[in-house]
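REVIEWER CHECKLIST
Item 1: Sequence provided? yes
Item 2: Single chain? yes
Item 3: Sequence as submitted:
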Amino acid sequence: MSQGQSNPLPFNPESLPRETLRHYISASEGDIKAMLDKVGADSLEALYQHIPGNCLFPEAPDLPEELSYEELQSRLVELAAENRPCESYIGDGLPNYAVMPVVDPVCAIRNLTTAYTPYQPERSQGTLTTHWIYQCMMSQLTGFEAINSSLYERSTATFEAMATAVRVSRKADQIIISEGIYPGDREVIETLLPGTGIQVKWVPLDRATGRTDLSLMRAALEEGAEAVAGIVFPQVNCLGLLEDVDALADLTLASKTKSIAVIDPALLGTGGLKPPTEYGQKGVDMIVGEAQHLAIGPNFGGPGLGLFGVRHNEENKNTIRQTPGRYVGKAKDISGRDCLVMVLSTREQHIRKDKATSNICSNQAFLATIAGAAILSRGESGMQKAFSKAREQALEAVEKLSRLKGIQLAFPESTFVNEILLSVDGSVPELIEAARQASIHLGVDISDRIEGKGSLLKMSFSDREMDLDRLLPVFEQCGYVAEKESAFISDLATSDLRSGALGLPEMEDEEIIKYYQSLGELNVSPDDACYPLGSCTMKYNPFINDWAASLPGFTDIHPQAPLEDAQGSLHLLYEIQEWFKEITGLAGITTQPVAGAQGELVGIKLFQAYHEDRGEGHRDVILIPASAHGTNFATAVMAGYRTKKVDGLQTGIVLLESAPDGSIDMEDFRAKVEIYKDRLAGVMITNPNTCGIFETCFAEISKLVHDAGGLVYMDGANMNAIAGWCDLGAMGVDAVHNNLHKTWTIPHGGGGPGDAIVGVSERLVPFLPGFQIEKREGAYVPVRTPKSIGSFHRHWGNFAHKVRAYTYLLRLGKEGVRRMTAVAVLSARYCFEQLREAFPTLPADAVATPRMHEFILTLSEEDFVRLEQVGVPRALVITRVGKLFLDFGFHAPTVAWPETFGLMIEPTESYSKSELDRFCEAVLAMLEMIRKHPEVLAKVPLFTPVDRVDEVEANRHVTLKESLTTLPEPHRNRLSPTEIGKLPISEVFERIVEASRQG
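Item 4: Structure as written out by the authors:
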């Protein structure tokens, strides 16, 4: 098959400087030799000679040989063709709506897709504005004042809302949940619960109505009394029936507990269902839901977009401070310009560590960007039409199918909206298979969701145009013939519907696309220049990865499609599963986790299951270095390892100290293992560590932990330094996560979606979550492990991101994985060598210690004093230097972490020697500026769309929404990163000084 004829690339790879380079490495062989000479190494292999031999693979992992660009295209087309998307009535756990035409053009805006989380707001106004639009659109749909885009999908959003309710109530620990929520959500909740202290009581559905049994809900509230922190109920339940949300909300109000409603935002347009602020007398306290279908197609289940909202008004000022995730708020810069910034960050893991409200680190940011654009594209009339179309098609299907003998509505007296539940006299699987043979995915067999109702088929409808006339022949083939009148369906009650119009703006797609393109210009991207954000691995994201993920065979397949029709997706998951066994040297892999932080949680939950299985559930201590990523601490607490004193000894998290060279202090480590050996659950260690130094004693650490009965978690955030070289199995690792949005080129999307793959040792394989994919007689089959801890995702994880990582791995091949990581290490050492004589480095006693992929610079005491003398407080010096990077056309390094006065730099393998030289020249010019013109740092940044943002004031007066009737007018670049990149560094220097004088 000619790839160009059937699935043409929407770009010309030859016109993209890095796209067709081998392994996406810009450095030529001459560059590599020159850089090796600079760092005093004679080969790439020599960069790893300081690592003990027992930590290294004897040879490259057994991966496929790399494919050419053309071969890669053909391979992906063939794999996507192994799937068979059909006209689908599945919906259920993931609604399937039409993808708006603006989505592809917005997804092609690289400065939006590849930018990092907007921690530097002055150079992130583009991303912040897209998030603001999403928040405001969702606020208009739901009536809620505070919406964020941080939750992975509906399941985890529901659990996080439950945890929020418990934190808010302080003394109550029980959550009552309607069994009307989607079963996949229930499985995730039950997987996350152990160790948290949250108690759950499930309230069944009424067999007569198919809705939540109100009498049992009332009884549960009365029985739980003051122990109840909240209740969870859906607006439309897992049978497709509309719940009595007014009664449920008022029950909660009367019991003085928190109410959490599970909603579908696609149903809330003008003419649709009423918003959750109007349930009962006062509405509900929190909302959760799935919003993936407002942005993209089913994509075999992910990435999702977990909707999360909380009231934030005069009556509800403080609940938001107990919620997870990131919010964008209104702000002003120091010159009084209106702008946007992330607010309320002091709740988050990177600041609060073990006191954080959640371990969530990434956002579902780019899904929110797309969803916001898609809602704008639909507008007021489009949202109304989407609801009407879904409802009309459901009614038409009932009209056609209820005439068939043996087919009837399962609950004719209960109200449905856009999903119909049919009671079938015969076999539902037989019907589904007959439909599959006719290229129809008929729906879902949900006979097990409620007792005593026999065989049940649920069919879902959306705004996708369906050929309903194709349904009757399928039913007739199975023996169902028209012999009766259609069922009578009453209209939706006025009390169930929205009154009045939403007030969404109406605009043309071309206007929306141009607007989002203009927002992209306000960001900086790894495409523009070296993006030195330490510990974040901001490398080049190949265009072809996104093309592969957009192939219809992948995007259009529903995660609940018959397995026979999803073989392409399962094939891909199988291969990437097996490849990561080779890459890590570990026995087992799960592809289900959807972020690095969730990967950590998977690992620690596996530790708990392992210890419980051995009768050692008393192990309640986790050792974590003080310099670890904030997620490590937050993850341990989320899993149940809360720090407290028991019999004079600490439980939960015990901190490990660092030696003067930044590595783990082995004397301190041995002492703490000895103290806690009988209660040691495990250790969490980043390797290479957050100073960019390889923990050469890692194998010894593992042995000491294992001898004490504990397990070893390696934070794999820095795998870009060691993938293909270090054998984690030989190092004694029991669990590790790989951040696909770091090492494996998933675009950061302004903060997410992230993604992860977790590898485990043999001892943890029986407990793996989700499904293992096995190859049996030529077919790919999902299999549960015998002691599986459950699921961390409602379906298969972020499948579209697995496609991207898979595509990258095929392009790298066996040799490319090692070459990629080695050049990343070489690039960092090369920059370190150029800068270390001018700058002090941290840790101070590690000057001679080989750096891996990143390193930390600081300023001399004289330079700190110099800046203090011009009015820059010492505590703000490093952040101001970070702002200076923005004016030189770069994103800032990681500032003030893990060293308070440090700048952590990670250049990655994506840039040529000349690009790294320019970067180093700029960093040296910054030092010159600090010494010759220190007053400049009182005013930076000077070229960004806005001046330095007043984040303190934005957090003092938090504003999280406005009613959007037109698009916010962004400030324009004074000098864009692209323009700066064309200037000599000396000229950039002079322009900054001149701008400072004029300002």
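Item 5: Key structural point noted by reviewer: The longest helix spans residues 365-401.
Item 6: Recommendation: ____
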